[in-house]
Amino acid sequence: MDELNSLVEAHPIAKICGQPLHEVPHDLYIPPEALEIFLDTFEGPLDLLLYLIRKHNLDILDIPMAELTQQYMAYVEAMRADQLELAAEYLLMTALLIEIKSRMLLPKPIHTPEEEADPRVELVRRLLEYEQMKKAALRLDELPQLERDFMQVQVLINQRVIQQLVQVNLDDLQQAWLTLLQRAKLNTRHHVQFEAISVRSCMSEILRKLKQAGTVSFYDLFSPSAAIGEVIANFLAILELAKELLIEVEQAESFGTIYVRSI
Amino acid sequence: MSDQFSLTLPASQAALLSNQLDEIRILETALLTSQEPLPVAELKKLFDGAMNSKQLLTMLDELSNQWQEKGIELVEVASGWRFQSRPEMHVYLEKLNPQKPPRYSRAVLETLAIIAYRQPVTRGDIEEIRGVTVSSAILKTLETRGWIEVVGQRNVPGRPQLYATTSNFLNDLNLQSLDQLPSLDELINQTEHTITDEKII
Amino acid sequence: MSDQFSLTLPASQAALLSNQLDEIRILETALLTSQEPLPVAELKKLFDGAMNSKQLLTMLDELSNQWQEKGIELVEVASGWRFQSRPEMHVYLEKLNPQKPPRYSRAVLETLAIIAYRQPVTRGDIEEIRGVTVSSAILKTLETRGWIEVVGQRNVPGRPQLYATTSNFLNDLNLQSLDQLPSLDELINQTEHTITDEKII
């Protein structure tokens, strides 16, 4: 009971002239500006009924229907007078309360078979069940909660070691090239020329050298230990590079040193 | 005395101990780096099946003891074992993350309680207990948090969806199973009597 | 001997130690639960500014020592301090999250093939052969991998960069030289076969 009241009263229902209003006034007078907030304090008609019952120390198992209905309706009327948009559930509850009250007022039929059910039973069952869930909600909220009350440990797995390099094998590369060739063949606009790999690789190598050294003597582009095939490939590479305007080959005078530099 | 004893351990036993030390070290590292709680079945993979559940539980127990004095504890939740900060450390951790996670409204908490204690339930069931309509936003909030999920549909017209709580919900509240939820207050006995009476009629 | 010494510590000093124990405990908890590395400035917040940087660094050093034997280590990275798994634990952690080796997309492979067989080539060359534009991301991927590099610029308007494969590329594919790439003749024959086959169909 105290627990429930404190739940409602922990937060002021409203502030009137700067004074916090902690309790719903006993005489049912609710300042108009507090009404809306008052309504917001409750989760619905069951909540409001429960509050009224607990607040006025009424016996939930023997609810004085007249008193409860009167109080409840006073609130609802006040809300309506203020033209607050009232949730339909509140009006529905009014109807239910009046129905229960009137059924209790009716004289019991003479040939009542044993005992007629108390019309309040269903309401009481609902009130109790709601109250039970309301308390359960509070207890759930009291449980320690991840991120609110404690944190999960999260140590980084050292990504540097985990990072796996993509593996490519020769088959992948061959397959990729094959696909390209097919596409090129099917598309006549492309004319793909094939040259020996060694010439191509020499071309890259020469460009690399020129990038570092700037201008290089023609002879320095040939390794003394190179096999004859390599020398030819290297020479073809220089010619190809010159043809593709990737390098410039210069000779200042006849039989002078030939210089090669990148453009 | 005890020092002396440990120094005179037979070599084989010492090796055994150092071996176990390694295994606990591996276990600890796995648990500290895991994003999610690790069940024993998963932990077994660490040792290529060379450990049975009993051995693992003994090691988890030992590991848990080792962390006794720390700000972190090893706990078992619904989906396995995890390391987490002790609640009393929160006052410090909060200083680093001043923005608090939002507290849930009463409407959300009541809805959660009904789903947790009465699952599986439809939105209609929840509305009947609360006496008000339950907005989609409320259910969405709980679904987004990963605490509730649709587990089926009730076989009645409209086939309304049935909601239940997830293992994430249990994990986040430090619970191993629904049995560990706070117990409900008994409904007042007399009502039950009255209701029983009613049923007889 | 050392036991005896610790027992006879003056009370004030013992208190200091136990106090520092608490602080290291807080520090450790914060670092273990943080999603990101924590810089010293951030760590100061834990103690409401009662610690200066020097004291914190001493504590971090002490903490780091405490983890010496563990599978996790305390390291300082650009944005602060963090715990991370030691490289040698990777073999165990991988058992929990076995990762499939990543593969390059077709676009990346084709680009690589063109650069390998036709080097030196510009992006334009690659685009002409592939018939589609080549994104910078693709070239970047291969450059980052250390497989291709810019070896010069073609002397045409815009001076486009010329790409070639690196020696790293050869090493990683276990080749001694580019000559060892599957020969083109072989490929052409295969292609022709394939195309012939296609035509028959």
Tell me about this structure.
In chain A, 53% of the residues lie in helices and 7% in strands. Chain A has 263 residues and is mostly helical. The two termini of chain A are 92 Å apart. Chain A has a three-stranded antiparallel beta sheet. Chain A has a two-stranded antiparallel sheet with strand order 1-2. Chain B has 201 residues and is mainly α. Chain B is built from ten helices and four strands; from the N terminus they run H-H-H-H-E-E-H-H-H-H-E-E-H-H. In chain B, a hairpin with a 7-residue loop joins strand 3 (148-153) and strand 4. The radius of gyration of chain B is 24 Å and the shape is elongated. The chains are: A mainly alpha (263), B mainly alpha (201). Chains in contact: A-B, A-C, B-C. The interface between A and C is large, with 52 and 60 residues.
Write the layout of secondary structure elements.
The complex is a heterotrimer, with one copy of chain A (263 residues) and two copies of chain B (201 residues).
Chain A (H helix, E strand, L loop, with lengths): L1 H8 L4 E3 L2 E3 L10 H10 L3 H11 L9 H17 L6 H18 L15 H22 L16 H4 L7 H17 L10 H17 L1 E3 L10 H16 L3 E5 L6 E5 L1
Antiparallel strand pairs in A: 1-2, 3-5, 4-5
Helix pairs in contact in A: 3-6, 4-5, 9-10
Chain B lengths: L1 H6 L3 H23 L6 H5 L8 H14 L5 E6 L2 E6 L4 H7 L9 H13 L4 H8 L5 H9 L3 E6 L7 E5 L1 H6 L16 H12 L1
Antiparallel strand pairs in B: 1-2, 3-4
Helix pairs in contact in B: 2-4, 6-8
